[in-house]
Amino acid sequence: MSWAIAEHRPCTDPASAPDATLMPGLASGKHAIVVLKGLIPDADFARNRDRILRLFDRAVTTSYPNGQLTTVGPYLARFAGDRAAYFADAAQAAATTAEAGIDLARRTRERLAGVLGLASFDPAVQPDGARYADHNIRIYADDVETPLHNDNIMRDMAGDVLTLRTLTSHYSCVMCVQECDAGGHLELYRKTWEPEDERYKIPDGFGYDTAVVSGVDSLRFKPETGDVYLFNPTQYHAIERVAGRERVTMGFFFGFRDSAPDQAIAWV
């Protein structure tokens, strides 16, 4: 089966027919990455971009022996030992972006629902009403990279009490707010995590030794400002070292339950 980048240019008419091949292609492995050009009108994207770039002073950097992640807004993995703090941070982040007039994540979900033919595309909510973060902003400064890793909510939430434990699939949606001058490619490998891969885990660090993907098919994708792209993060992936201007993205995860395959649930 082919494994390639699929580029799609959505019609600007919200009433246009959805493309029913995109998500099945991503799920089956036919599409490695789905790149959506023009999903958000240029003027709306530019307005959001200007407001996002003003939030750099709100960024938090988490450092590891082999790398760092700089974000505005939380991500669930950083709060593995303190879920209450995660939900509090998620609420604060939602207030921050609302006050700044940033609605890119919401608009992207609404457009994706139409383009992908989904009945709904909503942020995850706990039974007690606690809302998950529906996006974060990632900033990759000059000379920064993201080491090889994978994301798998089905693995990480197994036996947990969070509502995400019932999901049966996991995808990434990334909006390229600002492309960097050089580098910054998404490097994606055609391999999902297996328990025996833990021998390649970086001790006390982030991600895995590159030996885990030795000989595995891979591809590289450099997003352009305004691109919205989808991929399967349960496959190993990394972000190449950035050079020059910052690489800035807004993103979230999303997934489905077998009982509701047309209802996407978002979180980060």
Question: What is the CATH architecture assignment?
Answer: Sandwich
Strand content: 25-35%
Q: Provide the succession of SSEs.
A: EHEHEEHHEEEHEEEEEEEEE
Class by alpha and beta content: alpha+beta
Mean of all residue-level pLDDT scores: 95
**Going by CATH, what is the homologous superfamily?**
q2cbj1_9rhob like domain
| CATH class label | Mainly Beta
Fraction in helix = 10-25%
**What's the number of helices?**
5
Any idea how many domains?
1
Bulk shape? globular
Gyration radius from CA atoms, angstroms: 18 Å
Parts with pLDDT < 50 across at least 5 consecutive residues: none
Mind summarizing the main beta sheet? 10 strands, mixed
Separation of the first and last Cα atoms: 30 Å
CATH topology type: Jelly Rolls
Number of strands: 16
